[in-house]
C-alpha cells in the first residue's frame, strides 16, 4: 500500500482533453476524487461521497511516489511566490479552512483550539485569517505550545492527560480567554478528555467542532452540553475532510495572510534510507511538526 496524501508537484504529461494545464506547471493536488453521480456530490458535498477515491485510503494508492496520475480539475496551479512545499501544505490547511467554514468563524468569534499538533496549529492560522479576534490553544507539550505562541496565539494553556483535572483546566482556559468566553472550540485531538474539556469550556450557545480522530469512540458529557442549569445549548458539529478549499488556501498563502513555512520543520530526500529516517523522525515527535519529502 503506497501512502501519502499531502502533495504538490510539476506536471509532466497531460491528457488530450486537458485545457487548463500544461507540462511544467507547478500544482497542488487535492487528494479526493468524488464519483460526481451520487446525491452528495450533486449537492456539492463531495467530501462525503460514499464512493470517493482518496489518496492512501485502501484500496487506493497514495502519492508517496515519483509520479501519480490525477484528474486535472483537482490539480491547482501555484503562484510563482509559493513553493511546492507550501502547495503540499494546502491539504492540512484545507482541514482547518473547512472547519472554520463549518463553524462560521468571523470577527466576533473567540476560538479555543484543543491540541497544538499540525492540524491544531493550522487551525489557529486559519481561524485568525477568518477574523477570529482571540484564539487560545491547549496542549500537553511545552514545545508545541511555544510554537503556537510564535504563530500568534493570544494565550496558551498546558494541560494534563488526566480526566480529573478537567474542572481546574477549564477554569484556567476561561481565565486566559477572558470575560466574553469561548464561542467555538475546535477539538483537533479527538480524545475523551479533549472533547469533554471542549464541551465544558465552550460558552452557552456556542459550538464545538470535532476535527481530530484520536478515539474511534468517546464517552463525553453530552447531556450537560445540551441542557443544564446554566442553559448550555452547545452545538456539536463534525467535519470530514474538506470541499472546495484549495483555491482559498492558495490565495491565503499567496497573499501572506497565512504563513505555513514555520510548520515545515524537517526535510528529506527520497532514497530508501532517507524515507525511513523521515518516518522515524516524525514518530519520535520532539520538535517535528511537518516532515517533507523532496524528490
UniProtKB/TrEMBL annotation:
PROSITE patterns: ADH_ZINC. InterPro entries: ADH-like_C, ADH-like_N, ADH_Zn_CS, GroES-like_sf, NAD(P)-bd_dom_sf, SDH-like. Pfam families: ADH_N (PF08240), ADH_zinc_N (PF00107). Residues 1-80 form the Alcohol dehydrogenase-like N-terminal domain. The keyword Ligase does not apply. GO terms for molecular function: oxidoreductase activity, acting on the CH-OH group of donors, NAD or NADP as acceptor; zinc ion binding. Keywords: Metal-binding, NAD, Oxidoreductase, Zinc. Its cofactor is Zn(2+). Residues 118-253 form the Alcohol dehydrogenase-like C-terminal domain. The keyword Zinc-finger does not apply. Belongs to the zinc-containing alcohol dehydrogenase family. This is Enoyl reductase (ER) domain-containing protein. It comes from Gossypium harknessii.
